């Protein structure tokens, strides 16, 4: 199950925006030479991850979409988003975005009750409360920590030194990390955790398959294209 979950995280990172956003952000970013001492390794790992996506994750997600109606998949995605509220709430608060933090709290309360455990995003549709995505990597960037060099993680996809630290930090705020754990010890995480995270990833990917395909079709060389897009997007998110 750990392998399956990792594959899903890789795809989730790559599918963070709509295809139009991908094209706009990449085309308008400034060309710059990135410090990339691991370029040889990163290029090989990008090809490997892409192969895993094409031949494993994508077929699984498309098969899942075939049997699961889109409204049901959107409801499941809403429920997982609602469950991951602590990550957004904590990181908005750490970045002194107090209003966003309170809106996240309001979204959680409304969607957990009126939205039936988060399956319906009533906070957005009826109250106009939009989600404010923030993670610990962005928080570190907000306080001036540089990205460090680019690293492509096996199965997890593009990242950098700062965001790897952020990923570890967010793990402690992720409720899915504590399912069936004893004494809130992450080392006691159970198979149920990985099953749920696997479902989350496959469900998310099934709703966004076309977006990664749209991103790839414009790439002459896949690795530098994805690397530059990832670093440009992370810089933009931190500045917002």
At a glance:
By secondary structure, the protein is mainly alpha-helical. It is 66% helix and 3% strand. The chain is globular, with a radius of gyration of 18 Å.
Mean pLDDT: 84
SS-derived structural category: mainly alpha
Task: Give me the side-by-side strand order of the main sheet.
Answer: 1-2
Number of helices: 12
According to DSSP, the number of beta strands is 2
N-to-C SSE series?
HHHHHHHHEEHHHH
Gyration radius (Cα, Å) is: 18 Å
Percent helix among the residues? 55-70%
Distance between the termini: 36 Å
Low-confidence stretches: 1-10, 12-31
Beta-strand content: under 5%
What best-fitting shape do the alpha-carbon axes yield?
globular
How is the main sheet built? 2 strands, antiparallel
Number of domains: 1
Describe what you observe in this structure.
- This protein has 240 residues and is mainly alpha-helical.
- It is built from 12 helices and 2 strands; from the N terminus they run ααααααααββαααα.
- It has one domain.
- Strands 1-2 form a two-stranded antiparallel ribbon.
- The protein starts with a helix and ends with a helix.
- The relative contact order is 0.20.
């Amino acid at each position: 199950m750990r392998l399956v979950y990792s594959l899903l995280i890789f795809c989730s990172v790559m599918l963070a925006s709509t295809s139009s956003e991908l094209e706009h952000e990449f085309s308008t970013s400034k060309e710059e030479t990135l410090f990339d001492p691991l370029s040889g390794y990163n290029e090989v790992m990008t090809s490997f991850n892409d192969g895993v996506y094409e031949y494993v994750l994508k077929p699984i997600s498309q098969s899942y979409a075939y049997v699961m109606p889109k409204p049901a998949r959107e409801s499941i995605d809403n429920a997982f988003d609602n469950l991951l509220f602590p990550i957004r709430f904590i990181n908005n608060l750490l970045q002194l975005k107090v209003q966003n933090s309170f809106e996240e709290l309001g979204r959680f309360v409304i969607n957990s009750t009126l939205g039936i455990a988060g399956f319906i995003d009533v906070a957005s549709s009826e109250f106009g409360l939009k989600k404010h995505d923030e993670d610990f990597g962005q928080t570190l960037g907000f306080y001036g920590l540089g990205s460090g060099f680019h690293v492509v993680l096996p199965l997890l996809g593009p990242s950098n030194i700062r965001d790897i630290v952020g990923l570890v930090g967010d793990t402690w705020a992720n409720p899915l990390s504590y399912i069936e754990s004893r004494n809130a010890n992450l080392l006691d995480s159970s198979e149920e955790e990985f099953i749920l995270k696997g479902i989350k990833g496959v469900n998310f990917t099934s709703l966004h398959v076309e977006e990664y395909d749209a991103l790839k079709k414009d790439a002459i060389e896949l690795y530098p294209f994805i690397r530059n897009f990832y670093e440009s997007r992370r810089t933009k998110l931190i500045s917002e």
